[in-house]
Amino acid sequence: MEIGMNLPVMVPGLDRDLILEWCQRIDAGPYASLAAGERITFPNPEIMVTLSAAAALTQRVRIFFNVLVLPMHNAVLKAKELATLDLISGGRLTLGVGAGAREEDFRAVDAHFGRKRLAQIEEQIGLMRRVWAGESVVQGAQRLVEPLPLQPGGPELLSASLYPRSIRRAARWADGIAGFSFGPSPQETHRAFEAARAAWKEEGRAAPPRLVTSCFFALGRDARGQMDAYLQRYLAFMGPDAVAKIAPSVKTVSAKALRDVVRQFADLGTDELSLVPTGSDPDEVKRVADLIA
Q1: Secondary structure string (H, E, C) spanning 184-225
Q2: Which entry of 80, 143, 152, 274 is 20 to 30 Å from 93 by CA?
Q3: pTM to 2 decimal places
């Protein structure tokens, strides 16, 4: 099982120096990927700009969008941006896409928060793959939408799917799934992985799904307090009752707990566990590296 590390993009106070330090430490460590997720109405840096900077600051790790909320974006423009990023990164891009659950993010960018977002994603992915294959997507146009991605046909595509219905649909177009678990819960993740394996088989896919999941962690001083403060801030949109229910279930606030999670998820056949920091201290990168060594 590979281990990935997210940038602390959802933690307040992130600046140029911290982004540089985190990127350099992740690239120098035992990590397979450097990841970030997308939010709009939140004090986090914009994902495309941030991961473009990460691509330029690193040499080795894959650049992983663990969730890009595709229905908020124009598919052709996003295909061009991502192809450019794949070029800049030297073909290290992995793209996880999701339907999004925060209506305020859609409203902020004047996008429609419709009920058929999963179907919309399928249509968008089909269009983006045509762009990446070098096909014309504009009737009567004299030129293609370029550059083409360095990876032939485009980057690896993962579906940020958590539930059986979305996982079944993902089997039509994705290379795998990129889930998330708060606890994290091995049982919950096992069910998602089994659903993906079954869906890929039903679709007659030749290759099995790539199975990726992620979870929060905190290992520094006052790790429990750091985790609780992070959850209260990040999950505020769900309301105080939901936060109060979720927070006690998140156990990855010690080296032992995180080590146990790594072992449990390896036993599930996880291809990659992507860890999400809840603080901005770059020493967290070394703490995890020492733990998984």
Answers
A1: CCHHHHHHHHHHHHHHHHHCCCCCCCEEEEEEEECCCCCHHH
A2: 143
A3: 0.96
